[in-house]
Design brief:
Layout (H helix, E strand, L loop, with lengths): L2 H10 L14 H17 L8 H8 L3 H4 L1 H24 L1 H20 L4 H29 L5 H29 L4 H4 L1 H15 L4 H13 L5 H20 L9 H22 L8 H4 L2 H31 L4 H6 L2 H17 L5 H19 L8 H27 L7 H39 L7 H18 L4 H41 L7
Helix pairs in contact: 2-7, 2-8, 2-10, 5-6, 5-7, 5-12, 5-20, 6-7, 6-10, 7-8, 7-20, 8-15, 8-17, 8-19, 12-13, 12-20, 15-19, 15-20, 15-22, 17-19, 18-19, 18-22, 20-22, 21-22
Length: 532
């Protein structure tokens, strides 16, 4: 289909092509271009997860310190998302997008050449700041480039980037770390970023409506809500710190966590009245208070929790208790990524025919069943047991992601599409942090619980314990002599108790994630009908 034919047909349906970011070009080319940059940005939320042990070893830091490589990125990303809408309007969407893309590429290369932990964290913060502006502006470009009837298909391409990238991240990061070095997890963004920058510069146009709005803002002297931005940034930043460091620092037994919790609550309480009374707030919280957008926001929180938590904890489980390498742990997620890509295209078609509320409810149900299926894990679970679980998730997530993005724009004026994009992406990032925090706490607390229950039966007076000791001692005596056979038998029993404890704890984690996914079903069903 030619660009002229496409825009002419769309113009008949009430869509003004002069307001499109595609200009006179085919909008599907624009969709692919912005999705490349988005894929690269979202990829960096998970690509370093499986490389943390390599990073801690190379930079001579602890595993806890290395985890800030992931945390710092998420914190910076979420903070900038809140300001991206105003900056894009005030200084130009294309100009802002290119600035973010350029900074992201440069900071990615700097991360690859970081010489210590402090420099790596600094460059990751810059990378997160840049990435935080790219995703919502990409969505806004798509929303303005396509008529409402075709947004579902356009968001399908965009959705491939957002949903598949976190799945590809561990696989690619594991392979690069195992075969090259962790530095390449960041250096790989260099050539991709340069290509994306060139394509965006040449193909993406600034819509006339955006230019007119920017000039109007200049004439009116509208300025950024700096106080609101600082309150939102403080709230999100302190929340991320509490969620990510709470388990490590023993929650409220730590003065550090108590301090950041007080800061988080105080900034939130000040943020609400301030943002609700501003003429040009940094975040339009009234949107979150509506039934339609508010429900979409909560569903995206749950979606982010499932997507990020499973992507982080499944490779961890496979490497620690099933002996997988970083590469193979990542590969276990790959079949789900391929299914997701296919489903994105299918759901893009369905989104124009079936009400979003029904697609979302179906997807949330499938994901919940996938989480329930993972509760069947045991020491004999194979590679394909975990691969199939990701396939089920890969079927369900697109049924949530595309309709929720489409439904969230329903009833939103064109001038607020950037705000809607920012809020939905904040929900995904914050939801991911909440999901990881919940999973970490369930894992830690339930490990303690199951360990205390299991050791109750590992006592010398237990007949089962005596039989196991006799059999293990006989085995070790036969293969290694009698000198240390009993000690090795006791160590073997302790190891088995620890492994059983871990399996039960991970089962509880997946059960908790199942409940989170199931909670999205009633939220989806209260959405109003969308006019296709």
């Amino acid at each position: 289909m030619s660009a002229d034919a496409g825009t002419a047909g769309e113009g008949a349906g009430g869509f003004d092509a002069s307001q499109s970011a595609a200009g006179g070009r085919n909008p599907w080319v624009i969709a692919v271009v912005v999705s490349i940059a988005t894929f690269m940005e979202v990829l960096d939320t998970t690509i370093a997860n499986v490389a943390l042990r390599y990073i801690s070893g190379t930079l001579a830091v602890s595993a806890d310190e290395a985890s800030w490589v992931v945390t710092s990125y998420l914190v910076a990303n979420a903070i900038v998302l809140t300001a991206s809408s105003f900056i894009a309007k005030r200084y130009g969407r294309k100009r802002f997008y290119l600035a973010c893309l350029g900074l992201f590429t440069a900071s990615s290369l700097a991360c690859g050449f970081a010489w210590n932990l402090e420099s790596l964290l600094l460059f990751r913060v810059l990378q997160g700041f840049a990435g935080g502006g790219m995703v919502p502006i990409s969505q806004s470009i798509l929303a303005d480039s396509f008529p409402p009837a075709k947004r579902g298909q356009a968001f399908a391409i965009f959705g491939i980037a957002v949903v598949v990238a976190p799945v590809v991240g561990p696989t690619l990061g594991g392979w690069l770390s195992d075969n090259l070095s962790w530095h390449w997890c960041f250096l790989i963004n260099g050539p991709v970023g340069l290509i994306a920058f060139s394509l965006v510069s040449f193909l993406v146009q600034e819509p006339k409506s955006a230019i007119e709005e920017r000039q109007k803002l200049k004439r009116r002297g509208v300025r950024m809500d700096v106080v609101g931005f600082l309150l939102v940034a403080t709230f999100l930043g302190s929340l991320e710190v509490v969620l990510d460091r709470g388990q490590t620092d023993d929650w409220f037994a730590s003065g550090f966590i108590i301090t950041f919790t007080i800061i988080c609550i105080a900034s939130f309480c000040l943020m609400i009245p301030w943002e609700m009374t501003r003429a040009n707030p940094i975040l339009d919280l009234r949107m979150v208070a509506t039934r339609q957008f508010g429900s979409c926001f909560l569903v995206m929180l749950a979606t982010g929790a499932i997507l990020i938590a499973t992507t982080q904890f499944l490779p961890e489980l496979l490497q620690q208790y099933y002996g997988f390498t970083a590469t193979w742990a990542g590969l276990a997620l790959s079949p789900g990524g391929m299914v997701t890509m296919v489903m994105m295209l299918v759901v893009g078609r369905l989104a124009g025919r079936i009400q979003p509320k029904y697609l979302i409810a179906t997807g949330a149900t499938i994901v919940a069943l996938a989480m329930w299926d993972l509760t069947r894990l045991n020491p004999d679970s194979t590679f394909w047991f975990f691969a199939w679980s990701r396939i089920y998730i890969g079927i369900g997530l697109p049924l949530i992601f595309i309709p929720i993005t489409t439904a969230s724009y329903d009833g939103i004026p064109r001038e607020k599409t950037d705000q809607a994009s920012a809020l939905i992406n904040v929900a995904r990032n914050v939801g991911g942090s909440i999901g990881v925090s919940i999973a970490q706490n369930v894992l830690a607390f339930r490990e303690q619980f199951h360990h205390s229950r299991l050791v109750e039966h590992v006592v010398p007076s237990s007949p089962a314990y005596q039989r196991t000791m006799e059999q293990a001692t006989s085995y070790f005596s036969a293969v290694g002599g009698e000198a240390a056979a009993r000690e090795r038998a006791m160590a073997f029993i302790g190891q088995q108790v620890q492994m059983q404890t871990a399996y039960w704890a991970y089962i509880d984690v997946f059960f908790a994630l199942m409940l989170i996914s199931a909670s999205a079903v009633p939220l989806a069903l209260i959405l109003r009908r969308v006019k296709h």
